Amino acid sequence: MRFSLQDVKKSVQRRGGSLGVTLHFLRAGELHDEISRLIAYHERLLGQPQRAFAMDEARAYVGEYRMANCLLATLSHWYNWRQREWNTVVSELGGNEELLQLASSTQLRLALYSYVNELHHGFLRAQQRDQILAEFASRYAVSAQDLDYLLVLDSEGEALLTREAASPPTAQDIATLYNQWAFEAALFNASSVHFVIDYMAFSRAESAQTSPLTPVAGIGAVIKRLCFLARRLGVYYDLEYEQAPESSLSGQTMSPLLNLTLYGPQEVTGAPQQYGLRLARLCRFLLGYGQNTTRKKPQLASGIVEAEARIHFLQRAYTFAMDARVLQLLPAVSEPQQGLAAVDPSLLFDSSIEQHFSEAFFSLARNHGVDGWQLEREQEPLLLDKGIFLPDFALSRGKRRIYFEILGFWTPAYRERKVQKLHYLRGRKDLVLAIPLEAKEAFSSIVADFPVVYYQSQLSVMDVLQVLQQQYDDFAERLAHLALPEIHQQVQELGFVPESQCYALLNCYRRSELQQAATRVCAHGTSDITFVAGLGMYHVRWLEQIQQHFQHWLEQKAGGRTVWSEALHELRRLDPALQTCEDATLETLVGQWSRISVQRASIFEVTVELLSPSGELIAPPELVEPAEVEQEPRKVVRERRSPAKKRTAASSEIVQGDLWG
């Protein structure tokens, strides 16, 4: 059970008009004896019920109640209170099978209530209690004292103290975990964590861990690295850079500084536990990035010029400085990608909307339904005048590359930051925005500067493709740059190009584009090249050769007829280009020949038949007329109708009298 920030011992200072907070971390050797006595107290009570644990006695070992409560919570990482199993306790007490079937103290209390209600009208006098409980306990073959224990077995006071680990922790283990939990408790209540990074020092620290021949990475590589770490751990972030003065006091040139802001639970969702853990882990990793842990002297990690968090408690905001002393007291943290190597980074998303959009896009792409666009997740950042903008996706097709940003509706501060960054991107023609309908007013100041897709709940891939088609349709340019002589020569050499391959050959992405481009190719030069929708582009000489071979093969069949499966096998054997074609494509091919017909008696019975030059079947199937069978004349059954009743002329008219008279 973790402790909260209010439980941590701390001190508050006022620095230049703002409040700063310093948490009390345990240094090496601090409270060593007190923690050891606390561990010994837990070890002595192993297997004892919780009612035997004296909280005041445990606090007395430490002295300071805040620190004592935090250390007791830290010890819960190794020691827990566990309820005993019903069946185990009943077996130890010698209870009968009927008692075992009750399965819990709740059922036993209910049985006792029913027993007293039936025999004693729901009330027992004090003088009768021991006698009645003994009678009730005898039904289950246990004593009255054991019955009292079973009735409260599920209470917290009867839970037994257990240790999860094989051996007890050391005092240093407790102190180290306390420091980690205190650090994380602060970040659970953080709205942001700010790092100032010297990217050259940061890059050199990273390259020191690799081969000496590896060149030092530039600012772009460092930015991508920071973005990757934040996305890997699922932390929302913002990255900006500022140009430092050209020279320092010593005359040396200063490198640009990166400002990395990690947004905390207070800023993103307000739910601290899970998100706060990820944020704390990333901060610990950045603070320890590239540091040699064997050094005794504490120092801030290479490249981190400044690190501080803005935390909130008791309705006030405080600055929490994360310096080298804090870093030394925290446990080492492993590389975030360790243990996650099998996970594709492109599958990590900031929201479910992005994930659903990516899954739907790739599903359409498998069926060639995305107009040739390719979706990328880990794309390069866009450098602004005073910041960095990392779009959610990049869409590329040919030489064109479009960035795609899905705007959310998180908090007012989030929307303000997004709008501010998008103002810096005005004038770019390669950015498309997706805006939720409920945030239409919030982003109204930028909708005139970018192509926009509005969505409700989920983002439609087709809506995005429609906007891309309207804004970035370059078919006229692609059509004008078709190399018609080269295409003619290639089709003449191959003989046949399936329709699926014609898209790449004619530089087309849509079916309507393919039809127009093919018409232009066929109209160029001689008319010996033809395009058929559903089939592809072919040379007339190739079509004649395939028809001759197939017709000759069909003539050898009985009656010039064969089943469709055999015809498909023969067609794919005639030309390698036909081997990858679908059945519908081959049926379109057969439909080009006037002397061959595909007959369908049903969806399961399909035959290919050879026609005579006049267009009739060579051997039409014989029709057997069914023999006439004399049948007995059926008896005509007429519907019986009930006779209509005649109304008598003397029927009196019923008139309702005056009910109020």
UniProtKB/TrEMBL annotation:
It comes from the Bacteria. Residues 623-661 are annotated as: Disordered. Pfam families: DUF790 (PF05626). InterPro entries: Bax1. Residues 631-642 have a biased composition (Basic and acidic residues). PANTHER family: DUF790 FAMILY PROTEIN (PTHR39640:SF1), VNG6129C (PTHR39640). This is DUF790 domain-containing protein.
